[in-house]
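Repro case for the chain-ordering regression, as requested:
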Amino acid sequence: MKEKRNILWLCALAAVCLLGLAAWGLLGRGGGTVAVITVDGQELARVDLSQVRESYDLPVDTAWGHNTIRIEPGAISVTEADCPDKICVSQGRLTGGGIPIVCMPHRLVIQIEGGDIDA
Amino acid sequence: MPKGTRRLTLTALLAAAALGIFALEAQLPAPVPIPGVKLGLANAVTLFAMRALGRKEAGAVLTVRVLLGALFAASPSTLLYSACGGLLAYAAMCLLTAVIPEKRLWAVSALAAVAHNAGQLLACLLVVRTPGVLAYGPILAVSGIITGVFTGLCAQYLLQRLRKTGLIK
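-- result from build under test --
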């Protein structure tokens, strides 16, 4: 009985994990080419990555900190940040919609919109 | 030692341990490049305090750890995230320890960790006001379950061992 309860709990938690991973995988497949950069809820810039011919850097300096955003043909990434964990930098290049790059301490979100559901 | 002094000393000791673990963990590089994902071993101390001492003491340990942790280890801007996460995890622990026995403290811990990550995500949503961050919900639930089971087992084994020494009831 006790063992059964443990197994039941483990199965339930494992099922949630699998569902979560599946959802994460599906979310990561979003399309779109328009990168939207927001800081503290305010839209800072909007770039159509399919129109970018040459890579360039966009420095973002706000009250919360500094980030350097690299804009390339078809991709966007954060290459520099002065936050302690630098998770936004290790998130790498964003090429499609669904999952945004987030720098929580600097309130920065980079998201790709448009594509199939372009309004 | 009088009983009240004993409880106070133990609570203070646990708060210090939680803060130490939290500060140490903040120095480690992020395990995966996903914002909000971390082991959260300090939550094992909160859980331990709740089972060994009580809700009030666990609340005190958590409050001290979150406030001083933001001051010493993390940047102050992350205080909001850890406060929201901590509050939700604490509420989940209070509710769940009442219905789930200590043998399955790991399950309590898993659900509390998911609650912690949910609170963190909500705080993040309030701050950045960009609904796109909700895409992190599923993966944060997964990471909460995995890390929660681990930290819960830590607390569970520690309780078992320390009960044998008679240090705690």
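Ordering looks correct now. The first helix of chain B runs from residue 3 to 27.
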